[in-house]
Write a structure and sequence with these properties.
The chain is α+β, with helices and mostly antiparallel strands and 444 residues long. It has two domains: 315 residues, Bira Bifunctional Protein, Domain 2 (BirA Bifunctional Protein, domain 2), CATH 3.30.930.10; 87 residues, Anticodon-binding domain (Rossmann fold, 3-Layer(aba) Sandwich). The protein is built from 18 helices and 16 strands. The strands form three sheets. The protein has an eight-stranded mixed beta sheet with strand order 1-5-6-11-10-9-7-8. Strands 13-12-14-15-16 form a five-stranded mixed beta sheet, sandwiched between helices. It has a three-stranded antiparallel beta sheet with strand order 2-4-3. Helix 1 packs across helix 14 and helix 9 runs antiparallel to helix 10. The protein starts with 17 loop residues before the first helix and ends with a helix. The protein binds one RNA strand of 77 nucleotides through strand 6, strand 11, helix 14 and helix 16.
Length: 444
RNA sequence: GUGGCUGUAGCUCAGUUGGUUAGAGCACCAGGUUGUGGUCCUGGGGGUCGCGGGUUCAAAUCCCGUCAGCCACCCCA
């Protein structure tokens, strides 16, 4: 079919039909309500950002995954006319990759925001990644962030907000993994691993629970890290998992002490909130995004390869947009990830879609009469569809069944004459004349 | 980016060691005469078998390429 236009959406992007939309809205409405209950205020930012805003914030792999917007018209012609053309010459805008960087730009741009700006943002983001199960090129993030505070209370609040969302959605078994960038850095240094191998070591460590200690040894050896260093690191990590290891480390003033103290303060601050039961210290948690500086978080859930969400503290990001360094911490939930698990586990309540009543009109009834009745029914709060065509009653009822309407209201000349409809319950087949004003009471 | 699997009707799939006009179920449309659906019966529309090339008297079937989709890994939400 070379001449036919493909009717599929682009790779990694999806259409959402009614049943999908109502499930998505169900989740989003809970996210929004819970976030607002924590005092966060909404923010929406443009789909497109200047490339200067986006580039260099996510690490080299991140830059590769940015969707870029090609120059138009003269600007494109001029760019193409230049001798050597690079990616940077062809575009100066791109689709947003996450919601954190746009927030950082906004905070740097609007200097009259409150000192402590608590915002939530629920919008799609785009990544030119290879699609896989639970991974799309267009997906929604549900972010909560607090800017302007270095206090660990802010960290505790964002953790509490996402934990409360998951609890209200019906998740019970998730873990909120925590670690600390400074602590990690100290552990790697302690193992005698050179600072330039640090990023490498962290990425591999992140996989420890998947590939095992031998896998980590092998992978780090391939990257040029000496075996005894890797063993030292693994031993230090194992020791750090011990129950009071954090407390011991926090007491001293050695490397990582401050990170350990941060984490202990965080656990203490969360104790009275919804995150308490889910917090888990995981010294191997690394997280890829380059801008994290302090505590880092990730939501893990049984049966899901990736995470439901992630976040952390990023005290240097906003400063990249202006002279003023403003600390910040945030958390992001992945809508599609939550939906995936909820679908697999059947966690949705019954969600009404479509009309509750299909108004069937006999061919000898004027359309205006049907619309008048439908208007009265809608005024009672009912969702009502008027069958558009003058068709046989059987066809109209078949259509009602097809779209899943629970009731049909039949309007013939006799019903018009006495201000009633024949209301038919399509589940039981029972029917009878009902005054138009009484229909809602019968349906509900 | 790496490895594997799969491409036949709108959807889920049959299609024998290559062999006449490529099938089923579901969905859709129409009928089974008057104002009764979801069950049942009958009929109908819809596919150049992902695309391109090769082997052969003959290809949905075998070979090569290509594109697309799915799964795992990597990474992430």
């Amino acid at each position: 079919m070379s001449h036919a236009i493909s009717t599929k959406p682009p790779s990694g992007m999806r259409d959402f039909l009614a049943p999908d939309v109502v499930r998505r809205r169900h989740v989003l409405s809970i996210v929004q309500r819970v976030y607002e209950s924590f005092g966060f205020v909404p923010l929406e930012t443009p789909t497109i950002e200047n490339l200067g805003t986006l580039l260099g914030k996510y690490g080299p792999e991140g830059d590769q995954l940015l969707y870029r917007v090609l120059h138009r018209r003269e600007k494109l012609q001029r760019a193409l006319a230049a001798g050597t053309v690079t990616e940077l010459d062809l575009a100066d805008e791109g689709l947003r990759y996450d919601l954190t960087v746009p927030l950082a730009r906004v905070v740097a741009n609007y200097r009259d925001l409150p000192t402590f700006y608590k915002r939530y943002q629920i919008q799609p983001v785009w990544r030119a990644d290879r699609p896989a199960k639970g991974r799309f090129r267009e997906f929604y993030q549900c972010d909560v962030d607090v800017t302007g505070s270095r206090s660990i209370v802010a960290d505790a609040e964002v953790c509490g907000a996402v934990a409360q969302v998951l609890r209200e959605l019906g998740f019970a078994d998730f873990r909120l993994l925590c670690n600390h960038r400074e602590l990690l850095r100290a552990l790697v240094a302690e193992a005698g691993i050179a600072p330039e191998s640090e990023a490498l070591a962290l990425v591999v460590l992140d996989k420890l629970d998947k590939v095992g200690a031998d896998g980590v040894r092998k992978e780090l050896a391939e990257k040029g890290v000496a075996a005894d260093r890797t063993d030292a690191l693994l031993a230090i990590l194992a020791a750090t998992r011990a129950p009071d290891a954090l407390a011991v480390r926090a007491r001293g003033d050695g490397p990582g002490a401050e990170g350990a103290r941060d984490l202990l303060s965080l656990f203490a601050a969360c104790a009275g909130g919804p995150a308490a039961a889910h917090l888990t210290f995981d010294p191997t948690l690394a997280r890829g995004l380059g801008y994290y500086t302090g505590p880092i978080f990730e939501i893990s859930c049984a049966g899901l390869a990736g995470s439901l969400g992630g976040g952390g503290r990023y005290d240097n990001l906003i400063g990249m947009f202006g002279k003023q360094q403003i600390p910040a911490v945030g958390f992001s939930l992945g809508l599609e990830r939550m939906l995936l698990v909820m679908e697999e586990r059947g966690m949705f309540p019954s969600l009404g879609i479509g009309p509750e009543v299909l108004l069937c009109r006999m061919s000898d009834v004027e359309a205006a009469a049907a619309i008048r009745v439908a208007t009265q029914l809608r005024a009672q709060g009912l969702r009502v569809e008027v069958f558009a065509e003058a068709a046989k009653l059987g066809a109209q009822l078949a259509y009602a069944s097809r779209i899943g309407a629970p009731f049909a209201a039949i309007l013939g000349t006799s019903e018009v004459a006495d201000g009633s409809v024949t209301l038919k319950d399509l589940t039981t087949g029972e029917q009878g004349k009902v005054a138009v004003g009484d229909v809602a009471a019968r349906v509900r």
